[in-house]
Task: inverse folding
């Protein structure tokens, strides 16, 4: 049990104000937060006199934001901590998979080391939750899972995590389903899938086997879907049918889902309504070279959209920073979010939902009873943080500084 303490002089948002032209600005004030057993138990104005006997840590006037969720990553693939190596060019997804398969065995012994370096990077940028997909395939078996699980367990006092058993080389290949079952018994928590049309070449059977695994292990689902256009759209539509039939409400996600942005708007609206009703989520990495799912439309329809950095510094690509906030900045640029309130509300795509203020300017975070998970930045408000992605001066998880310093 940690000693209770006050995090003093922390800048928190208190509301929006509008000028005569209707332009929003964000009001902030300095507060003291009392933290005990990993939770915020008191919130006082900085004029409050803290009893002398109580421990204090100075927040230095930094702005507090909710910590971030990295919701689409591949800890097992990164080259981080190894010597520099650029990817070998590939002309197709099939060729890329072949090239990856060739080096899996070589990389396996360093899985924990490489993952730990990636985790440190994600933490330094404010992510205290990681959802990672881990290859489960005929080439690597469970070796990657063992290394990634060990790395994440070492950081369990600094973050929370989810491991997705990911059939990167196809679910319907010989012996993959037994391997997936073994992975679920060995520490994976979610069932993954990959391109039922493009890779498995059998949409219905691929989705059926994903759902079978999920129901057998009472697990949530997160499938990769790169298949585009009407084929990809049909796949999502068929998936919604299976989710409804299995009563897997609020337990299924589709990562990438480019196809949802490649069909006419009436179809986008129709599928968004289905996703919303079923509580299905969309995970996006905001790529700059591919079409995007219609994030704004999905958001308006009540579909949860989460962001992630995907795999980076690996055989798939040499680029990436591990900064989920940077993904929100890119979203803002693409969707032309440039006014105060839109920028501020976009923060939810990094945090997994929480923002300091509601759309109407009501204070909704932090409140007494909330977990003491905070990112401290040198910014005046959420809108500035989204637009300018400032350095994370300190990252606090359950009341403990887990990256940076104060």
Result:
């Amino acid at each position: 049990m940690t000693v209770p303490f006050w995090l003093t002089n922390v800048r928190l948002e208190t509301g929006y104000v509008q000028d005569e032209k209707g332009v929003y600005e964000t009001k902030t004030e300095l507060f003291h937060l009392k933290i005990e057993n990993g939770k915020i138990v008191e919130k006082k104005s900085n004029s409050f006199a803290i009893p002398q006997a109580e421990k204090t840590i100075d927040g230095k006037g930094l702005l507090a934001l909710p910590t971030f969720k990295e919701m689409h990553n591949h800890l097992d693939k990164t080259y981080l901590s190894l010597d520099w190596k650029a990817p070998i060019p590939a002309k197709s997804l099939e060729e890329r998979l072949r090239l990856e398969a060739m080096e899996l065995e070589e990389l396996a012994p360093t899985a924990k080391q490489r993952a730990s370096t990636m985790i440190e990077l994600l933490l330094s940028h404010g992510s205290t939750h990681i959802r990672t997909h881990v290859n489960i395939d005929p080439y690597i078996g469970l070796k990657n899972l063992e290394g990634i699980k060990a790395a994440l367990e070492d950081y369990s006092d600094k973050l929370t995590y989810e491991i997705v058993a990911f059939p990167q080389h196809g679910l319907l290949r010989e012996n993959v389903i037994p391997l997936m079952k073994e992975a679920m018994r060995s520490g994976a928590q979610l069932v993954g899938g990959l391109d039922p049309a493009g890779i498995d070449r059998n949409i219905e059977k691929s989705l059926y086997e994903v759902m079978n695994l999920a129901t057998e292990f009472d697990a949530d689902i997160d499938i990769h879907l790169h298949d585009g256009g009407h084929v990809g759209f049909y796949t999502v539509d068929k998936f919604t049918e299976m989710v409804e039939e299995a009563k897997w409400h609020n337990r299924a996600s589709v990562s990438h889902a480019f196809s949802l942005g490649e069909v006419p708007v009436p179809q986008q609206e129709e599928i968004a309504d289905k996703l919303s009703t079923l509580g299905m989520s969309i995970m996006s990495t905001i790529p700059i070279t591919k079409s995007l799912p219609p994030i704004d439309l999905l958001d308006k329809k009540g579909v949860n959209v989460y962001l992630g950095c995907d795999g980076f510094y690996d055989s798939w690509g040499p680029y990436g920073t591990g900064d989920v906030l940077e993904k929100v900045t890119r979203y803002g640029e693409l969707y032309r979010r440039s006014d105060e309130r839109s920028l501020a509300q976009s923060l939810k795509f990094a945090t997994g939902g929480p923002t300091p203020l509601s759309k109407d300017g009501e204070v909704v975070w932090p409140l007494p009873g909330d977990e003491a998970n905070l990112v401290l930045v040198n910014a005046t408000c959420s809108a500035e943080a989204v637009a300018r992605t400032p350095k994370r001066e300190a990252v606090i998880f359950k009341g403990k500084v887990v990256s940076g310093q104060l």
Summary: The longest helix spans residues 229-246. The radius of gyration is 22 Å. The chain has a mean pLDDT of 95.
